[in-house]
Amino acid sequence: MAPMGIRLSPLGVAVFCLLGLGVIYHLYSGVIASRLAALRQGKTVDLRELLALSVEAAVLGGREVKRIREENALEEKTKGKTKEGAKEMLTIGDLRSHIKMYHLIKNTFPYIKVNSEEHDHTLAAEHNVWNHVIPNEILEKIKEPKEVMADSITVWIDPLDATQEYIEDLREYVTTMVCVAVDGVPIIGVIHKPFSSFTAWAMVSGGSNVKPRKSYNEKSPEIIVSRSHAGKVTSFAQKAFGNNTKIHPAAGAGYKVLSLLDIPDESHEKADVYIHVTYIKKWDICAGNALLKALGGHMTTLKGEEIDYSGSERNDAGLLASININHKLLVEKLPDLQEST
């Protein structure tokens, strides 16, 4: 006699399936829960880690900048023109630094937005990842974690500031820079000088390895300005502070910010105020803005407005930077830009 088969009613099939799903859920719910928890954890970042990563990225890019300059392998070319019609130059140093810096940050925190001055896809991507070791120098100053939501972060990197001077072999002006903005506010700033191996870093409400100078001349400040727009800024500054105002033409926004601080490089120029009267890209100024902000200083538009680092890459409203000087009073002294340039 043939064996009897077991037949399940539709209800029985449904019950059996539900029981099976229950077993599967029991077996895998822990795995799913842990994966979801890990995903949620990945959406917050400790700012101390971002500071350490920013320092590492700036130094790594700086090594490429220095190596290529010393090998005289710049391969410079024009990538376009500025708003004023001047040539914007590009070198292999810019591109190699960009590749190192951009991919180190993106490989470590892929869900963070990163804006770089360069956007080249001809060079192979790097696969390097930061080791998540925060240097003691940072841990000693910022002892507690500072968690922020990843989607509130924008990282601005300048792989090589002062490219024209880099080509001219005016090495003192060259920097690599990283800035971390949270909800558009600059919080972390790193400025690295590749040819002197000096790195300035700071975190707002955290700490810094640099400090302001002991004194500044508020009544007759010495002004540091763009080397390529010195004439325009000179007349602008003299209307505000007098015809005898001392002007320091220099290159690189990073260099100019460091001129306001107490840094160990004695050959670095010193100034009391930094003024820029034409448009400037935010990757040029974000790191310096964060440094000054962390030290109690200010970087604003010429009208005294805060600069937002969450949207457009351009700042069209000029620049005024100071520290340990009445910034509001400086703004009030400035003439109308349209009438002065």
Structure description:
It is built from 10 helices and 19 strands. It has 341 residues and is of the alpha+beta class. It folds into 2 domains: 44-209, Fructose-1,6-Bisphosphatase, Chain A, domain 1 (2-Layer Sandwich), CATH 3.30.540; 212-340, D-Maltodextrin-Binding Protein, domain 2. Helix 2 (47-70) packs antiparallel against helix 3 (92-108). Belongs to the inositol monophosphatase superfamily. Its cofactor is Mg(2+). One of its GO terms (biological process) is phosphatidylinositol phosphate biosynthetic process.
Number of strands: 19
Helix content: 25-40%
Strand content: 15-25%
Distance between the terminal alpha carbons, to the nearest Å?
Answer: 107 Å
Shape: globular
Which ranges are low-confidence, i.e. pLDDT below 50, for 5 or more consecutive residues? 13-19, 21-41
Mean pLDDT: 87
* Number of alpha- plus pi-helical segments: 10
Q: Please tell me the CATH architecture of the largest domain by its name.
A: 2-Layer Sandwich
Q: Helices and strands, in N-to-C order?
A: HEHEEHEHEEHEEEEEEHEHEEEHEEEHH
Judged by helices, strands and strand pairing, the structural class is alpha+beta
Strands of the widest sheet, in order across it, are: 4-6-7-8-9-10
CATH overall fold name of the largest domain: Fructose-1,6-Bisphosphatase, Chain A, domain 1
Number of domains: 2
The CATH class of the largest domain turns out to be Alpha Beta
Radius of gyration: 26 Å
Taking the sheet with the most strands, its summary is: 6 strands, mixed
CATH homologous superfamily title of the largest domain: Fructose-1,6-Bisphosphatase, subunit A, domain 1
